[in-house]
Amino acid sequence: MFENLQDKLEGAFQNLKGQGKLTELNIASTVKDIRRALVEADVNYKIAKEFTDTIKDKALGQNVLTAVSPGQLMIKIVSDELTQLMGGTASEINIKGNPAVVLISGLQGSGKTTFSGKLAHFVKTKLNKTPLLVACDVYRPAAVDQLKVLGEQLGVEVYTEIENKNPVEIAQNAIAYAKQKGQNVVIVDTAGRLAVDEEMMTEIYNVKQAIQPQETLFVVDSMTGQDAVNTAKAFNERINFDGVVLTKLDGDTRGGAAISIKYTVNKPIKFVSRGEKLIDTLDIFYPERMSQRILGMGDIVSFVEKAQEQFDEKEAQRLQKKIAKNQFDFEDFLQQINQIRKMGNIKDLLGMIPGVGKAVKDIDIDDNAFKKIEAMIFSMTIVERRNPDLLNGKRRERIAKGSGSTIQEVNAFVKQFDQMKVMMKRMQSMGMGKR
Length: 435
What we know:
There is one protein chain. The chain has an 8-stranded mixed sheet, with helices on both faces. The chain folds into 3 domains: 3-85, Up-down Bundle (Four Helix Bundle (Hemerythrin (Met), subunit A)), CATH 1.20.120.140; 100-297, 3-Layer(aba) Sandwich (Rossmann fold); 305-429, Orthogonal Bundle (434 Repressor (Amino-terminal Domain)), CATH 1.10.260.30. The chain is 56% helix and 9% strand. By secondary structure, it is an alpha/beta fold. Helix 3 (45-59) packs across helix 4 and helix 19 (393-403) crosses helix 20.
């Protein structure tokens, strides 16, 4: 995510390496490179210039403390301004109402329907609401079918009227149905087009006027850069939406949309979405955290939050006792793998750790890397899983055959497992277990 922009900005800060203080000359050189990096990331030139002029004004006259280098000070200034440019603080979704109605808008292919499913899962699991998904795309049958499939996967009801081609009536009927059934959040997925046109705008305007939603969200493909910003502007002028959703953030995203869309339409980015998976791929947008990630500083707060979501205090205490007694086994290890997997994409997780993202950016980290290890553990008997010391040569040979591995791979895994146990035991004895 934003890897090219990260590299270019890092190059800009190199101008200050070895400098003892910020001067008009080195500030001008750095600011010029930052502006070029932003324009190459598809940020509008006017926005990039205004942004870098502000940075220049803030940097001039700054006293560099002994403990802080000019480069570090400049990164801090850029981070603060980037945070403000993207909205300053997180903005919550408004789901007050009985039911609360959320209208989803955007172009075809932007990820509206997938986002609708993700939002339904979010309000159901994180906000303890009972959502109803509404299929109001009367032109694309596949959109209705897609929403039905998503609803089945999530355990969320989907309201459809196959024969009705009037989206206004469908949306109104769905709200009445939700009231009758006690569903308190109605998410209306509307039709998209390949480009902005009058017919599309009139339709989405009519739907909004008829149902008066508490929240209208504009979904935009973050890979389309400045085009996404222009489309957002056209939609906002017509339907005055409440917030933006950036999708496909795991793709080849240059960063232009994320950086400049708030400035252009003066509406907050509320959510960011990655990939097609419905669970654990939708996040609230935090401008400060995104700014830090763009500058290659990681996002340790989001990393910790994801870990806490999977954290089980009783399980942690149980494991702590087993580690203290050197009884950590393969079943415990399997449980830890499952917890890590629930946190999301491994490479994305590593990218949140300061200093690690850059180190792994060119490494292909397969999310299926754990499958080989799981296959080995599942090829063990219950007794072997709970007693790793039993794994002699014959048992390892059987495990290799059962998991489709070589004996060398099994030996390497067991060796790594033993080394991990030693390290965990050492950390426990140093008093780091509770941490």
